[in-house]
Amino acid sequence: MQFIRFLVVLLPGLAFASPRGGALVDFSDPKVQGHLDALVRMAQSCVIRVRATPKDVRAYFTNSAPVTRSGQCFAACMLEQSDVINHGKVNRELLVHLASLVNGKKSRVVRKLNSVSRMCLDSIEGLSDRCQLASTYNDCLNENMIEFAFPLDLAEEAVRKMPFHLMSPNLPDARV
């Protein structure tokens, strides 16, 4: 599925207002809700794959920098599952395209993402660790797109939907 972390910022259940008024995204739109549902399913898979903790997932969904290795790898899993990052390479064009599916090609969100995503490539230059690379790129996007932050109540709802109860100490550690 081609859904990305950045879409989390754009797909909560309520509309954000731009500083000049007016909604940026209609979150009551069934198409938008479908993207959000798919994103949550992808996150559920990543929680199990990298053994992310509730704190890791909460940081991700609240646009906070991860403080643990599993949090960094959770970001990597999300971006890799969406094909935005593949074999250590960021596909900016796909990132922008996916955002345009929800927001429209000429939207303010997409215009800003187009320039910010290019700038954020500089932040990952020379990084080879997949988790660090993805996390650093994601953090750069979040820091520079702060006006599109995910509402805390919806972030908490997403965290509650994660299958933490399915993790067991005997599962192999896939964070590496």
Tell me about this structure:
Helix 6 (108-121) crosses helix 7 (130-144). It is built from eight helices and two strands. It has 176 residues and is an all-alpha fold. It has a two-stranded antiparallel ribbon. It has one domain (5-15, 26-166): Recoverin, domain 1, CATH 1.10.238.20. It is 56% helix and 2% strand. It starts with a helix and ends in a 16-residue tail after the last helix. The model is unreliable at 1-23 (pLDDT under 50). Strand 1 (85-86) and strand 2 (89-90) form a beta hairpin.
Please outline what is shown here.
The chain is mostly helical and 176 residues long. The protein has helices at residues 5-10, 30-50, 54-61, 69-81, 92-103, 108-121, 130-144, 152-160, and strands at residues 85-86, 89-90. It has a single domain, classed as Orthogonal Bundle (Recoverin, domain 1), CATH 1.10.238.
Secondary structure blueprint with pairings:
Blueprint: H1 5-10, H2 30-50, H3 54-61, H4 69-81, E1 85-86, E2 89-90, H5 92-103, H6 108-121, H7 130-144, H8 152-160
Antiparallel strand pairs: 1-2
